[in-house]
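Q: I have 709 residues here and want to know how they pack in 3D. Can you give me a structure?
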Amino acid sequence: MSATRIGHPWPLGACVTRRGVNFSVVAPLATRVELLLFASGAAREPREVIELDHRHRSGEHWHVEVEGLGLGACYGYRVFGPLQPGSHGFNPSKVLLDPCARAITGWDVYRRGSAIGAIPNTSTCLKGVVTERDRFDFDAAPRPRHPWQKSVIYELHVGGFTRGSGCPVPAERQGTLLGLIDTLPYLQEMGVTAIELLPVMAFDPQDAPAGRLNHWGYSPVSWMAPHPAYLMDPDPLRGRQEVRELVTACHQAGLEVLLDVVYNHTSEGNQEGPTLSWRGFCDPLYYHQTARGDYLDVSGCGNTIAANRPLVRRLILESLRCWSTELGIDGFRFDLGIALTRGEELAPLDAPPLFEEMEADPDLSDLKVVSEPWDCGGLYRLADFPARRVASWNGRFRDDLRRFWKGDDRTVWSLSQRLSGNPDLFNGQPAPVGRTINFLTAHDGFTLADLVSFDRKHNLANGENDRDGDNHNNSWNHGVEGPCADPAVNALRERQLRNLLASLLLAPGVPMLLMGDEVRRSQGGNNNTWCQDNPLGWMHWTPDEDDLALRRFLRRLIQLRQRLAPLLNQDLPPALIGPAGGGDSGPFWREWHGLELGKPDWASWSHCLAWSLHDADRGPLIWCGMNAYYQPMHFALPAQPGGWRRAIDTALPGDHAMPARPEPWLPQTAPLESRSLMVLVATSLLETTEVAGKKAGGGNRTRIISLEG
């Protein structure tokens, strides 16, 4: 038998000491706790059981120090306590995973079904692994720290992005975090500044319909450990180092790494679900419940984490520190994050303690924090998300831009609000830089190519009789459902892809792109590929010439945005009226137009809008016309003393839609084809001065920049 000591309540989890390992867990209502030590992850019985009694308890914490143990030790818990009427918690037949374990083993023997009911799961349980807690080496790989003003986020799935025919990742590295390193040149060339990874914390792949696997990962079994399927080395102690290697490579490539984190629910589901971890330690602590013990669910997954409670939010904060300070992650996107702002009985809080503590924590102060501002209980707080440093996913931006380019009525006014920083949502003023994440597509919904190719979802492959996935996509197939051989339909779809991308990148706010949209990746009309770990959910790595043309368009578009970021995404947003409006415009302003200058058509039947950005000294600097009507339209142009250059014209085919070096635009009007967008930029904004060589006669010369980067 191992020699033991009383141990300490802090730090949580398993931590190496001078004599062995200190274990500490939270179990406020427990009457007895057993620590189980296993010889390996595959062991079907513990080699030793250490009983913890009242002497090993400090307040809500149970702790013990076991001498002679070290890194790699495998362990679990059994927790005993009184069963109250309606309680679903204490079940000492189940071996529980430490919520603070930084590595997990036992996946080869794990069976989700064995964690349900009263039958012991000892032979099929997951086990925690004792790991190091070293800090990330920020001296060797400092955070890139891109300002929000110039940030462009690329959302991807680690497994899906590193697989597929033509994938540049070596076969042995496909589907892994380290395999993602092989794709960094691709991401750098595109010009994005950050990658946002779908969940990489350990999740339950068995939480899916029969015959399928959970692919996306929104079914967490741990908030600390990396998911084993994304690791190359089977040794769980190596997993954390593989995360560090990826983050180091990204930092050295100038890319920030954001994680999609799921703190609003767990894989334990409703009261009929498995007892894996949190539920067994203290069911009524971790989950919102009724007085009878029934689960309250605003996550759509059976349970809702009670992040308002001190012990729960401390565990979440420990997870954030684990990933950010120990593993180097630069920021987080909170899945259904508004659910974490609910208090007792799910009441919305204006000062949610979790986010208050995050903002006060110096270890977390330099992170980018993003959240979904909605949950499945109907709470939607976009502009008034109750935390100062949180940027919200702007679902209104997605919906309004989709509806405008689809040709819906009553969309022009809403479009103007999205393109001027959402003043209608932020008390009449444009949103501060970094408060909204603009997107057209995300993992949840149609890809961009499917958005212009399908009128309805096609989700039968998911095994849920097409009941899953959103039914309201604001999509349009342009006359034919799915793939099409009609050149006219395909040409219109291509134009719409460029319209949508240009609208996204020209708007104030932080743009987010979806994996593969740049090469027209399709999911066959499936708008919910959460259980499709196959080519349907993988990256498109065999692009044809049209796919590559769209990618070049996007790359140049990002370069143009970065060049014009001080104008398009200003720290101090421009006034929304010009001198013609009779107001005090200041040195910089935005002006709206219709077919005539200064005369926008806000009528419900209007489908055309133009806008320009003006400087008091240099005149109009950017003009953009947008025609979602089915017929061509002719727009008047403001005079630019130094001349205009046409940067974008989506009506033109291929690379002509956005040439690497914009050509002069001499006409005093702008004819826009049906369903097209045009952008003119003042020549002075695109000029660069460089030293001429001796053959050129010396001196300086001015030329137009290239948008190839």
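Q: Anything worth noting?
A: The chain has three domains: 4-129, 154-505+515-553, 568-691. The first strand starts at residue 4 and ends at 5.
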